[in-house]
Amino acid sequence: MARTKNLAVRSMLIDRAAQLLRERQPVTLRGLVAGTEVSTMAVYTYFDGIDGLWRAVRQEGFTRLATRLTEVPTTDDPVHDLAALGSAYLSNALTNPDLYRVMFDAGVDLEDAAAADATLDRLVTAVQSAKSDDRFRADVDPLDLATQSWTIGHGLAGLVATGPLPPAALNYGIPMLTALFIGAGDEPQRCTQSVTTGWRISEERYP
């Protein structure tokens, strides 16, 4: 009879793998279970081996990001929502820095690539809403603008969550996103207010 799997054990192994990567230690079966009551067979029980573990580690990063993004409410101000989603992205990176380091390692497959793509789709939807509200020009491509917005957030996350800059540098996102959205057609004063309030909505989540 198959043994019931413990989700806490699965999560622990994912977190330990990400931690070992951050510490630049070799990720071995023994290293993963060292100091725990779990045997090395758990890696095969839960992931079918190390390769499966790597896929799960990458996927977990996107799973936690998706969860964080779903906590961002949709308002009647789509530009505010875009900024709030960017802020939530950064909040997730700072909360899960070890997983964030491996989320975008294209050398490792994902368990569910479509689920990872859905995180970008949240931004695309917000851009489409902004176009519908005449905040952005009709010729703005939602995917292009969402990708540019994501690039700003990803750059800040890399420099703060996994790099040399302090958390205070996250506020650089406000002028960068404001300039991006004004360039897409938004009215400057209204855009500044929307981005500033949206960006700060997740500020309390920063460690």
From the N-terminal CA to the C-terminal CA, the straight-line distance is 44 Å
Shape: elongated
Q: What name does the CATH topology carry?
A: Tetracycline Repressor, domain 2
Structural class designation: mainly alpha
**Gyration radius, in Å:** 19 Å
The second-level CATH architecture is Orthogonal Bundle
Compute the number of strand runs: 0
**What is the string of SSEs from the N terminus onward?**
HHHHHHHHHH
| Rounded average pLDDT | 89
Major β-sheet, in short?
Answer: none
Question: Residue share in helices?
Answer: 55-70%
Beta-strand percentage range? under 5%
Write up this protein.
The mean pLDDT is 89. The protein has one domain (58-205): Tetracycline Repressor, domain 2. It is mostly helical. It contains ten helices and no strands. Helix 7 (113-132) packs across helix 8. The protein has helices at 7-22, 29-33, 41-47, 50-70, 78-95, 97-103, 113-132, 142-160, 173-183, 188-199.
Task: For the structure shown, list the relevant keywords.
207 residues, mainly alpha, Tetracycline Repressor, domain 2
